[in-house]
Every structure is written in C-alpha cells, then in structure tokens.
Structure to design on (142 residues):
C-alpha cells in the first residue's frame, strides 16, 4: 500500500504540533502550518519541489512576521495599570494621622497603612493625600 504525499505532510504537521504543545515554542506551529500548506499542494497534484518550496517559504514567512509582531508587543508597556501600579497617583483620605512613622488612609475603598514620603511632613484626619508609591502593604503619600 502506497501512502500519498499529502498524508505524509499531514503526519509531519501533527508531529510538529506535538513539540509546540510540549515546549510552547510557536516556531513549531509555523512549521506545522507550512506542512499543512504543503499537504494541500500535494493533494492538488503539485510536485515534490513545489511542496517543499511552499513548506519552506510559508514557514519562514510566518516565523518572520510573527516574531516581528511578538517583539513589537513585548516592547510595548501595558496601557492599563493593574494591581498596586493602578494605585499610584490616586488620592486618598487620611483616617489616622500619617507621618514618617505611619498612619492609616482610605484608598480605593480600602483601608491602607501609610507613611509620608517626607519624614518631616504629617497629615491630619480628613486631609486628602496623593499616593506616590506602594511599599509592600504601605502606601507612601504626599
């Protein structure tokens, strides 16, 4: 029994999909897509040289395009701040006197321990302060 070339290409695509799942390396996925394209060329009656050319050109093109897009996204900072980064720059209300030794504020609906950024400055109950950073579980305010 002779197996058609397109079946071999599909077997190759599945074989390339296994390391994609195991290693999470997207390059294997690009090669698998190239193998599927080569299987289509083989099923349509294309020669071995055309099948290999389609596999190589499509795989390399996908790797080049996807890598460029991935690098661009990796270098961009997220526009949406989350977690403690989202609290920086927010205003809070002093609940207990805040100085360099500590105090309490209400920040984003929660009660936080706080200390003043300037060791000589203190803030009284009811005063609004700005959060400049979060140091562990303590808000540093001015």
């Amino acid at each position: 029994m002779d197996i058609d070339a397109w079946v071999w290409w599909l077997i190759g695509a599945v074989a390339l999909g296994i390391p994609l799942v195991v290693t999470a390396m997207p390059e294997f996925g690009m090669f698998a897509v190239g193998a599927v394209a080569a299987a289509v060329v083989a099923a349509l009656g294309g020669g071995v040289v055309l099948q290999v050319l389609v596999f190589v050109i499509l795989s390399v093109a996908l790797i080049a395009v996807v890598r460029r897009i991935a690098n661009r996204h990796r270098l961009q900072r997220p526009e949406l701040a989350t977690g403690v980064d989202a609290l920086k720059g927010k205003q809070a209300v002093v609940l207990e006197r805040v100085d360099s030794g500590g105090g309490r504020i209400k920040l984003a609906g929660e009660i936080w321990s706080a200390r003043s950024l300037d060791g000589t400055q203190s803030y009284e109950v009811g005063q609004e302060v700005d959060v400049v950073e979060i140091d562990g579980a303590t808000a540093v305010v001015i």
Observations:
- The helical segments are 5-23, 26-43, 48-75.
- The mean pLDDT is 92.
